[in-house]
């Protein structure tokens, strides 16, 4: 039987990303195209995000201050 994938709440995502707030973390995930994969049980259940998707998106994101508008010449 396959193991359950690791899922994070937005507070855990914000902590991992070093974001100042959960709103900043949500905006970052939106820019990266990462969507919630589930919700916690209950009426006010929080959205849950796939931890592996977040790690992959962060590793492929350009660093702070990267000039993505310029083509590199090789």
From TrEMBL:
Residue numbers spanned by region Disordered: 55-74
Superkingdom to which the source organism belongs: Bacteria
Protein name in UniProt: HTH merR-type domain-containing protein
Taxonomic source organism: Streptomyces olivochromogenes
Lineage: Bacteria, Bacillati, Actinomycetota, Actinomycetes, Kitasatosporales
């Amino acid at each position: 039987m396959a193991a359950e994938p690791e899922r994070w709440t937005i507070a855990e995502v914000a902590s991992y990303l070093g974001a100042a707030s959960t709103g900043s973390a949500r905006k970052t995930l939106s820019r990266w195209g990462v969507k919630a994969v589930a919700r916690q049980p209950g009426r006010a259940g929080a959205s849950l995000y796939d931890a592996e998707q977040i790690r992959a998106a962060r590793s492929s994101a350009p660093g702070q201050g990267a000039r993505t508008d310029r083509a590199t010449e090789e």
